[in-house]
Amino acid sequence: MSTAMAPDLTTKQRKILQYLKENAGTKTYFKSRLIGQELGMTAKEVGSNITALQESAHDVEIEKWGYSSSTTWKVVV
């Protein structure tokens, strides 16, 4: 599903989803802190919005993987 076709997502969730889709081809693990730095959000904002993305089907599988200096997410497109 395209992010343009996901009206149930907030603007922040769309930005995060787009970022993950664009970068999941070269990376598998993402830290909330680093995503936040790239997108101008806090790690807490990223974490709460990724949790919402986990619960919806958008052609991306997101799994909370670990926590060390920031929550790490395993992402598979």
Give an overview of the whole structure.
The structure is a single chain. The chain is of the alpha+beta class and 77 residues long. Helices cover 43% and strands 21% of the residues. The chain has 3 helices and 3 strands. The chain has a 3-stranded antiparallel beta sheet with strand order 1-3-2. A hairpin with a 3-residue loop joins strand 2 and strand 3. Helix 1 packs across helix 3 and helix 2 packs across helix 3. The longest helix is centred in the N-terminal third of the chain and has 13 residues. The N terminus is likely disordered.
Number of helices: 3
Please, what is the average pLDDT? 86
Q: What's the count of strands?
A: 3
Run of helices and strands: HEHHEE
**Unreliable spans:** 1-5
Main beta-sheet strand count, sense and barrel state: 3 strands, antiparallel
Tell me the β content.
Answer: 15-25%
Shape label: globular
Assembly category: single chain
Briefly note the structural class of the backbone. alpha+beta
Rg (C-alpha, Å) = 11 Å
> In which range does the helix fraction lie?
40-55%
Itemize the secondary structure elements and their pairings:
Elements: H1 11-23, E1 29-31, H2 32-39, H3 43-54, E2 61-67, E3 71-76
Antiparallel strand pairs: 1-3, 2-3
